[in-house]
Design brief:
Number of strands: 2
Helix content: 55-70%
Shape: globular
Strand content: 5-15%
Radius of gyration: 19 Å
Number of helices: 7
Length: 109
Amino acid sequence: MERQKEYIETIRQVQSVVEKVQSLDDILEAYIPVLIDNGYVKEENGWAGGPYLTATEAGRQNPVITDKLAKTLYVRSEKYFSYYFTEKAKKEQLAFPKKKNTERLSYSL
């Protein structure tokens, strides 16, 4: 029962942060109240790659805090956002559905 309460509380925290996002600056800071302030991850200095996140024991114990969630919330820069969210979505056709090649079939008869 305690684990379910923790799960629900964490989901609500993530939801409240994401609902308030209205600008790129909000996106760049979204991971702090959810991941850092709650002690689920700590930010460490990397060498050439810049800072990176490391899971804490609290983060490993919480079922909501996954690598996928951390990678989604942790947007390092405007360039990172542009590439990984905008360009990747275009390539994967998430936002722009592929055209079906049905025109060619109808004219070949």
